[in-house]
Amino acid sequence: MKxxxxxxxxxxxxxxxxxxxxxxxxxxxxxxLTSWYLQKTISPDETVEIRLTLNRSGNYEEAGYQIxxxxxxxxxxxxxxxxxYLVNREMQPLDSxxxxxxxxxxxxxxxxxxxxxSSKNAEIKFVIADxxxxxxxxxxxxxxxxxxxxxxxxxxAIDAAETPKDIEGILKRYTLYIEDDLLNGPLVKKxxxxxxxxxxxxxxxxxxKLLKDLRYLNRLLQSETVSERIRPQEAPRQEIVPVKxxxxxxxxxx
Length: 254
Prior knowledge:
Helix content: 25-40%
Number of helices: 4
Radius of gyration: 30 Å
């Protein structure tokens, strides 16, 4: 199982006071989410324990945190010690996680479990945000992973192609699929989860970028220079020399 933890680290300053005297009060601090060692592989129907720690550079009493996860590959379930399940692509208050150890406000420890429901590789990402900026800002990470996943799928299909015509057909099919999805799919996902809505918007951005790249590759493939380079080299023709037949002669006279 591949576990990626994405922490949203923010530093916000609140200025209070009159015209002359300004009091600078730091209410939000940098924070991160870390995990203990995780096993590299997980079998179907297996459950693994995920020990997580919220590390804070300072403590502000009114600060609150939200946690969520994204199932990038495979399928499975995430839950806490009381079997309360987290919902994929939705955030929930960190203090609702069972047996959260917040005795040290700057180092809060909690445990989650992941139950694998797939025979494929499992990849999940945890995201954490504070109440000063609830929006999900791991957009660059999410887009990079989404693009990488699609580029790999296209590359695998091209690697299996035998001729330039096959490659052209593969690129055309991917192009038509994305065009149809962008034209006929919903532009906005009307979900109660801000995180899910954001993920949908990011996927549309990624599809637009993929479409541009695929169109460029198609034009590149159809150019004469590239076509000549990828055209399989023909074996040099060998001139066929007819075999001379030996003249049949009678028995030699002695």
